[in-house]
Amino acid sequence: MKQINNFWNWFQDNEHLLSNRKDKDDEKEESALYWLGEFLGYYCPNLIYLIVQNKKGKKSAELIISADSDPDFYGEVIKLVDAAPEISGWKITAFIQPSPQLWGEINEKIKPFIFPDIMLNRGELLFIPWDNHLNDKMILRIYCRQFTIGCKKKHWEKALHIYIQHILGGITYGNHIAFVEIARKYKETENSIYLYDLPYYIETINNERRYNPNSGNK
């Protein structure tokens, strides 16, 4: 409980450095982000955070605490978020939730999903599900037109990992996805599916298993 209190005491003292994009001091914000990660790690090194800073027209920033899709640490996320104090201007959320913006019309789905060094064009992200004989979770092979051998693969893997969590939500990701790999070359086949349709694919598989328990992975 001491580490939980330490985390929230630090956050209350420093949240003003993290909440707003305007008039910010980049050096102080970078330092605050570093220490946010450190204090979270003191409590549980297996947790991660995401911050959605408040934009024009939005009243609150959001701090998301996640177990990075590892079910063994879901309880630690819940304990930390349940202990969160009321902080003006902030929404505290447990787990990455499915984003309604990613379930919109097709013109919304193909808008770029932007990270600091990477822009994912959603209309150019495909996947092929692979059978996983160890359990019911899926192995995804991702095909990305922008990815080349010269790209920093770890950065792309992290970006795709977060993007898929935004599509599915952190818990659904942990329950259904075993492994994600990036294909070396982009190609479209009759079996490839747009990545933004992954929730519908999982829903279809779940329905098949519900009505035909012996169906297995497709």
Brief summary of the model shown:
The protein is an alpha/beta fold. Helix content is 37%, strand content 19%.
Overview of the molecule:
By secondary structure, the protein is of the alpha/beta class. 37% of the residues lie in helices and 19% in strands. It contains seven helices and nine strands, in the order ααββαβαββββααββα. It has helices at residues 2-14, 26-43, 74-82, 106-109, 153-168, 170-176, 198-211; strands at 48-52, 61-66, 90-94, 113-114, 119-120, 125-130, 138-144, 177-182, 193-194. The strands form three sheets. Strands 8-7-6-9 form a four-stranded mixed β-sheet. Strands 1-2-3 form a three-stranded mixed β-sheet, covered by helices on one side. Strands 4-5 form a two-stranded antiparallel ribbon. α5 packs across α6. The longest helix has 18 residues, at 26-43. The radius of gyration is 19 Å and the shape is globular. The termini are far apart.
Share of helical residues:
25-40%
Total DSSP E strands: 9
Portion in strands: 15-25%
Order of helices and strands: HHEEHEHEEEEHHEEH
CA gyration radius, whole angstroms: 19 Å
Shape descriptor reads: globular
N- to C-terminal separation?
A: 45 Å
Helix/strand structural class: alpha/beta
The largest beta-sheet arranges its strands as: 8-7-6-9
Uncertain spans: 100-110
Number of helices: 7
| Mean pLDDT rating | 79
Query: Strand count, sense and closure of the main sheet?
Result: 4 strands, mixed
